[in-house]
């Protein structure tokens, strides 16, 4: 286990010091460990439940995918999500489609 706190952006435990900052070796986020950590990303599903990294969600409507012959069907279970900033605020892997981004408004927490 690392003697440094986990990355506030991706929660990786692989951080290293550089001058007076800590740097994440996975996402390359830099932060000052002496500053107060801001509250993380707050993402809500379609029902208003707060989502967290590693949650399992279910798609609530058919979602067309550019370049794919078929949509992601309603009821598809997506495991081990990762939250991000931006319009598509969920990164995940979906069986049969691969890695992609989803909008939290189209999923519900299991």
Overall description:
With 110 residues, the chain is an all-beta fold. Helix content is 0%, strand content 31%. It has strands at residues 15-18, 21-24, 30-31, 43-44, 50-51, 57-59, 77-78, 82-83, 90-94, 98-102, 107-109. The strands form four sheets. A three-stranded antiparallel beta sheet has the order 1-2-3, with no helix packed on it. A hairpin with a 3-residue loop joins strand 9 and strand 10 (98-102). The mean pLDDT is 89.
Q: How are the SSEs placed, and which strands pair?
A:
Layout lengths: L14 E4 L2 E4 L5 E2 L11 E2 L5 E2 L5 E3 L17 E2 L3 E2 L6 E5 L3 E5 L4 E3 L1
Antiparallel strand pairs: 1-2, 2-3, 4-5, 6-7, 6-11, 8-9, 9-10
**Can you list the strand order of the major beta sheet?**
1-2-3
The percentage helix is under 10%
Average pLDDT rating: 89
Extended strand count:
11
Structural class: mainly beta
Main sheet makeup = 3 strands, antiparallel
What is the ordering of alpha helices and beta strands? EEEEEEEEEEE
Oligomer description:
single chain
Q: What amount of the residues lies in strands?
A: 25-35%
Overall, the morphology is elongated
The first-to-last residue Cα distance is 31 Å
Integer-rounded radius of gyration: 17 Å
Catalogue the unreliable spans: none
User: What is the count of DSSP helices, taking H or I runs of 4+ residues?
Assistant: 0
């Amino acid at each position: 286990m690392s003697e440094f706190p986990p990355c506030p952006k991706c929660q990786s435990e692989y951080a290293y010091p550089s001058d007076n900052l800590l740097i994440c070796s996975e996402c390359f986020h830099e932060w000052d460990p002496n500053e107060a950590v801001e509250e993380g990303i707050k993402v809500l599903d379609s029902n208003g439940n707060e989502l967290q990294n590693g949650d399992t969600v279910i798609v609530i409507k058919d979602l067309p995918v550019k370049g794919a012959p078929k949509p992601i069907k309603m009821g598809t279970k997506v495991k081990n999500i990762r939250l991000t900033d931006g319009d598509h605020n969920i990164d995940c892997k979906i069986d049969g489609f691969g890695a992609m981004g989803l909008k939290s408004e189209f999923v519900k927490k299991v």
